[in-house]
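Our example copied in:
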Amino acid sequence: MTTSAGRVPQVQMLSPDGVFEVPSEYAHYGKYIEKLTLDDFLKFYRDMARIRRFDNECTALQRQGQMGLWVPAVGQEAAQIGSGYAVGKNDHMFPSYREHGVAITHGIDLMSIIKMMRGVNHGGWNPEETRFHLYAIVLGTQVLHAAGYAMGVNFDGNVGTGDPEVDQAVITYFGDGATAEGDVSEALLFAAVNKSPLVFFCQNNQWAISSPVSAQTVVPLYLRGEGFGVPGIQVDGNDVLACYAVTAKHMDDARNGLGPSLIEALTYRVGAHTTSDDPSKYRPQEETDYWIARDPITRFEKFLRRQGVGDEFFQEVAQAGDDLATQIREATFAMPNPPLENIFKHVYTDPHPLVQEQQAWLENYESSFEEDSK
C-alpha cells in the first residue's frame, strides 16, 4: 500500500532471499537482534515449522469431522513467533482466535486449542499461569479487554519503575478486519488518554474474510492510531527477525512508561479465513501465489543456511513435525466427548426451570438412540 507521499516506510531486516541487513534508520530495532544467538534463531525456525505442521493437521482433522471449525494461520508464522518471543515474563497477551503461534511461544498445550475448537472446553489454559488470555471468538472484544487490563497495570503503578520484576506491558492481537470495528477505536482512545502500557499488534493479512483491506481503509493501518495519540509503525510481517525486534522495542517502551503504540505486521493469510470459507470465491490465485513465493518459513530457512545451518537440522525439524502431527491426531481421536450436562452448566447462577426442561428433553432425545440400537 502506498500513500500520497509515496511508499509506506516498513521495517524489514530479512530480504525474501534471506539476506540480513538493518537499515540505518532502524538501528534502534536492530540492537535487539544483536542480543540473539544461533540457538534463538533455531528456536524461531522450529516453532514456525511446528505450528504450520500443527495447523495443517488441524485442518485435516476438521475435514474429518473431529472439530466443528478450524482457524488457519498458515503464512502468518513469522508475525506470531517473532512477536510472541518478544513478550516479557511479566507481560500479558490478549489474542483473537488465530494466534496459535503466539500460544506455543508461551507454553500453551496445543491440545487445549483443539479442545476449544472441538467444543470440549471454553479454553483449556489458565491465563493467570501463562499470561496468555483466552481466545476471543467475538471479533474485537480482546482489544478492549487488553485496554482495560493495561489501564489497571498503570493504575497499580507497575510501569516505569525501572524494576524488571515489577514493570509490565500488555499486547493485544487483531486483524485488519477488526480495525473497522468501534472496539479498536475505543481501545486506542482509552490507551492513549491513560498512557497505558499497551502494544496493539495488527496482523494485516490482507483479507477480512472476503473483504480486501482496500475496502476497509484508504491509509495504511499503522496510521490508524495517530488521531488518538498512538504512534504506529509498519513491519514486514513475513520477517520473523523484524517482527521480534520491533515488538521487543515497543514492549520495552510500554514497560518504561512511554505509553501505547501500534504495530502493523503486513503479512498474508494463505489459506481460508476458517474451514467454513472458500477463498477461491473472492480472491485471485495470482495474488496467493505472489505471497506463497514470499513464504516466511522459506525465507528464514535461507537465512539459516547462510549462517551455516545444514540439512541435518531441517530434516530433524521435519521429522519432529511429523511426530507432532501423529501425536495430535491420536490424541484427538482418543478424546471423549464432553458430558452432555456441560451445555447447561453456568448459564444462570441459580437453577432455572426452562434450562432444566431443555436438559431433560435433550437427555431423552439422546437416550432414544441407545434404545434404537438394542
